[in-house]
Amino acid sequence: MGNEAIARGAIEAGIGVATGYPGTPSSEVIMSLSRVAKELGMYVEWAVNEKVALEIALGAAFAGIRSLATMKAPGANVASDSFVSAAYSGVNGGMVILIADDPGPHTTQTEQDSRWYADLAKLPMLEPSDPQEAKDLVVKGYDLSESLKLPVILRTTTRVNHTVGDVVYGEMRRIERKPIFIKDVERYVRASMVGNLMRHKWLNNQLAKAEEEASKLGINRVEGDGNIGIITSGVSYSYVIESLKRIGKEHKVRIIKIEMSYPLPKSFLLKHLKDLEKALVVEELDPYLELKVRTLAHEEKLGVEIWGKKESGIPIEGELNPFIVMRVIAKFLDIGIVELKLEEPRTAITPRPPPMCAGCPHRFSYYALLKAIKKAGFKLEEVPIMGDIGCYALSYEPPLEAIWTEHAMGASIGLALGLKVSGLDKPVVATIGDSTFFHAGIPPLLEAVHKNLDVIIVILDNEVVAMTGHQSTPEWSVTESGRRTTPIDILSLVKGLGVRYVKVINPYNINEAIEVFTEALLMKNAGPRVIISKAPCALMVIRQGKILGPRRTIDYNKCRNCLLCIIETGCPALTTEEVFGKKRPVIVKELCVGCGHCAYVCPFNAIIEEVKKSD
User: Fold this and answer.
1) Same domain flag for 318 and 365
2) CB 323 within 8 A of CB 358
3) Do 76 and 191 belong to one domain?
4) What global pTM score does this model have?
5) Residue 268 vs residues 56, 73, 128, 293, 433: alpha-carbon distances, Å
6) Within-domain flag for 413
7) Which residues have a Cβ under 8 Å from the Cβ of 448 and sit 6 or more positions away?
8) Minimal CA–CA distance to 286: which of 310, 307, 255, 317?
9) Those residues with Cβ within 8 angstroms of residue 398's Cβ, 6 or more apart along the chain or in another chain
């Protein structure tokens, strides 16, 4: 996998510190490194958020230790304050910042093109096209970082992070350095305006050396020949190569592969652009390379005809693939090709959105909250429920259709505060997961306490970062790498922030949960009320060889085939079968974890505990 290759590259480069925050498609890098951290003597841990992760890595690089910070695209927004300033300070040990974009998007709230961050921060940026290059460019990235004394961004996309391919290993370097940090106010203190001006000049001078240093490392290359060219980078290069092979033109087109997208390698580009008749720019998302190539061609008065998004029809949203790229190249080369068609599936599969897992405690929490809203005398459309980033965001789907928003990490609380200060007279509820609360939920809760704002905050505590692969949270006493920690108790933390109304509920006790939610909804002018809905992720329970309770079965003598168990819960362990022309519910025993939600919902007591057969 590409992420494993990135981890391998970091090991080969001799890093001493790696940290990040979980987020698909970047998570497996830290997960892979944590398995060997103790053996290799590295510090590898998840941080509470991306800003903290970047600052830990930056501090290590200040001390001369090679470091890695990982994050997905929205995490770059969180960390940007720190890495923009980091460009002025520079580093002593090599530092790579992995930013994993998600064209599509597959698992991200936006199709953010993070390449622009390189321009904003003025940090060199490398883009690999496959797992082998991902590994190799990480190694080269550390050498480039130390030669320029700047952090280097490694920008990937989902198809690089999660592609599986053969990777040839290199030598594992063991860099033995004693950490040392020397006071240098002009360099490290951003309060000095004169110093900041000097550091900006220094930064620009370092960037001016970037192309030469990259060339020494074999970064950027040209393949093929001819007077027609294709300029590309990242995974788009792989699509270009495959497309040219399919149409038999792989040796008749000059491919200019940009591996360092920022700063643009102008001398390299000019050398290979000046004798071309026309050049096609192939890239996903924004016309980032295209704008730079057009500007260079204009400044140097080149006669080359540039084909960008407008001329080629390459979309500015969504992923590219070989089929799109092949059509574009055929148009560019003015040749006809046989239209490729995807294989039709032998069996049509019903489209199905991702559901909450069987037994998920979040399903219970939202179910109880919705029931409580009605019990308190409100209509569901009167009480906004603000969602956040995590598994529980799936509650927007039927049958719950609970959350009204899902915006950014920690935004549920801030948005709820905004609704209340706008004058909304009905209750407003913010729902946020435990890891998201630690990440970005504490400041808005502090704001609610300080301003005595009348909101209900439900912290959905399943004791893990579940959606990205079950990573540790600050509640854990031992991390993935085996490090013993001081676990942070959310209840104590919330009380310490000054919240007067705090309740802890077990979401599987539905009646109790409804009562607590109802009480909070009916309170007026009581300031922030926090309800911690605490139960472990059902998948974690299953992995321990346990289930939540006795599995259920259906007594069809009592069942009226109303299907309310399915309609109200949406549990994936429930399905239907047709008997005598009528649908009736069926419990899929392989999926049932004994949560009992279906039994609670059934008005006819037709769902009963399964009787174990005696041996």
Assistant:
1) no
2) no
3) yes
4) 0.93
5) 35, 29, 18, 12, 48
6) yes
7) 413, 417, 455, 457, 527, 528
8) 317
9) 570
